Every structure is written in C-alpha cells, then in structure tokens.
Amino acid sequence: MSAVVAEGLSHWFGSEPALDAVDLVVERGDHVAVLGENGAGKTTLLRILSTALRPSSGKLEIMGLDALRERRRLRARMGYVSHSPGVYPALTAEENLAFFCDLRGADRSRVPEALDLAGLTQVARRRAGALSRGMQQRLAIARAVLHDPLLLILDEPDASLDAAGADLLAAVMRGRTAVLATHDQALATRLCQRTLTLRKGRVLGPGSRLRIVQ
Amino acid sequence: MRSITIALAIARKDLVSEWRTRELVPALAQFIVLALVIANFGFQIDSRSAPAIAPGVLWLALVFAGLVAFGRAFASEREQATLEAVLLSAAPPAAIFAGKALAAGLLLVLCEAVLLPALALFFGVPMSFGLAVIVLLATVGMAALGCMFAAMVAQLRARELLLPLLTLPLWIPFIVAGGQGVQVAMGAGGSLDQPLGLLLDFDILFVVLTSLAARFVLDD
Prior knowledge:
The structure holds two protein chains of two kinds. Chain A is an alpha/beta fold. Chain A has helices at 42-49, 71-75, 93-104, 110-117, 133-144, 165-173, 185-191, 209-213, and strands at residues 4-13, 16-26, 31-36, 57-62, 65-66, 78-81, 151-155, 177-181, 194-199, 202-208. Chain A has a domain at 86-148. Mean pLDDT of chain A is 90; it is low at 207-214. By secondary structure, chain B is mostly helical. Chain B is built from eight helices and no strands. Chains A and B meet through helix 2 and helix 3 of A and helix 1 and helix 4 of B.
C-alpha cells in the first residue's frame, strides 16, 4: 500500500488556482522533494497533505485512509513542520515540547530525547522567544517527531537552518516516509529519492535525482 | 478523559504565558478601575442612586473587558502561528476550545476580583456571595460565546470590529439575567432564584452549543 495517493488535487484561493489537478504517489519509506518557484503551489500542496487545508477538488488517500474524512486519525500518525516555527515564545523549549506531548497523548519522557536530537539540550530551559530563528525551527522539527510519526510533511524547514540543519533533517526523515518542500536543490538531492516540480500549481513532470543533477 | 487532559493543558499553557508576559490582566484591571472612576465622576452618585446605577456600570465594564480578554484568546495563537500546530496535533477541537475558554474565563475572573471590590468602594454597594455567584455564572456563558466568535474572526482582517458585532447580541441574555440578579444582590428586593436559574440554563445551552460548533469553527 502506498503512503500517499493523490488524484487530481486542485485548490483555488478565490478565482486564483493555487493547485491544478496534481497527481502524486508516495511509496512507504520514500522521500519526495517538492520543488518550485515562489507561488508555485508547494505550500498549498503540503498543507493539503498535512490535512490542514481541504482541497477544492480531488481525492487524497494517506496510509490507506481517506484524508478528507479521517483527518484526526491521520494527524496522529503524521508530523508537520511549516516554514514558520510556530512555537510559544513565553514557554521554554522543554515546556513547548511537553505541551505537545500532552496534546498528542505522548509520554513526556520523550522530551529530552527530542531535544537532544534537535541539538537543543543546552537551551532546554530557555524561553522559545529568546531562541534564534534557527533554534526555533529546530524546536518545531523536534515537535513534529515527538509522537514518532510514520509520515513527515516538511514545508521549507531549511529556511532558517544552518548547515548542520540538513543532518537534523536527514536524522528525522530516516525510516519514515517524507515529503519535503524546498528551494535548495542540493538538499533535495541529498535527502530525497524523487522530486516533483510545480509551476503555477501544475506538475511539470515527475523527476528523479539524476534529472536534477543533470 | 483525554479531552479533559488536553483542555487543562491548553488552559495551563495560556495561564503560564499570561503570568510570564503579563500582557492582558494588568491592562484589563487598569481599564476596569478607570471605567469605574469615569462612571463615578460622570454620574451624580448618592446613596439612593448608587444601587440603580452600579449594576449597569458593572456590566458595561465586564462586557468590554470580556471582549478584550476573549479576543486575545485566539489572536495570540494567530500572531504566533501556533494554532495550526495545535490543530494538527490531533487534539479534539472541542477540547482545544474548552481549554482556551477556560483560560480566558479565569483571566476575566481575576479582573472581576478587582471589579467587585472596586465597585463596592466607589459606589458603596454591598458585596455579597450572591453577587459573586451571579457574576461567575455569567462569565461561564460569556466565555463560551466570546471564545467561539473570537475563534471565528481570528483569521479575518476586521476582527476587532466583527467580534463585538457578533458577540454582544448573544451576550444580552446574560446581561439581562445578570443585571436582574445583581440588582437583587445589591438590595433591590426580590429573589435570586430566577436570575440564578436563568443564568444556569443559558450556561448549559451555550456551553453545549459552542462545544458542538467548535469543530466547524476551528477546523473547517
């Protein structure tokens, strides 16, 4: 069974099509990079895959479940990182993760492990608002894997990460299915087996790592 | 059971954030005291007119403080871009909503702890257990409705305008029953049973309705 099967996904914001009949199949364990210019529809596609946004039309099945009907069940099995970290500035890094453990019903004992993975152990008791943007993004990545998800949806998570951030992304993607939107083709080549290029909401054609390199 | 844990976690997070940033409560407390000072100078208050004027001043101060408190409940999540992360955590929307309403309601109760003694001081009206119960019961229903509309308008540009327009008409039952109860508690005569019963009925009705609507408001 494929991890993600999307057929004819379309989405309009008003009269503007943001996504136009996108088909996508992601096999279990696959890492797929979504490439494209600003406004190509990457974020719209990833928000639909994460179930944060309902498509205007099309079918979406994730891990065998209808993503439009079984959103809560799917959310329990996936992790999502957006380009905006979305952390609580008044809470410490540790408290941010503990809060999401409570929401997800995960054991709080996973917090130190997640902080260690993200390289945030030293700043665990510092308020998230006092962390640099890159550290906040690391915190958001740690939050996305707290519950050990099967599928990761990563929307430009590298936007404010340093060079070592790619290692963190590789670590969290290992052993999981992942869809990664990025502008960094080198990162896409390093972390993903397949690429999907969008332009004005349309798929340009399924690519491969070789095609990108060429 | 898990929904209660989630609601409490959200309320605790909001209260800890408020305790550390002190964004809302000091400003609301100042607003309430200023409203009472202005009312004190604006009306010719004596021992005979105070019981008639005080309930109106109390509800005006409470309604406007409530609009600010409930408006902030979801506005802060929008500014920090955290609401999506909370929704994608698979937490039930009704639990998220209950947690936000609980925290905002408790912050308003803190303001009421300033309002009621200040009202007694400025207007010389008697404080009583009945008065506190009436105000608390009204706060429950007002918090449920206020937070629901705050969630609805959080993503809109004209939210500051829309929140009072949507919320105030539905708060009128609380103001009518609560106003009646406060007048009785301040010695106007009559029984507290009817306003208490009405407020309890409104609380149950609106808490149930807003819990059912939470999924559509927050997630759809």
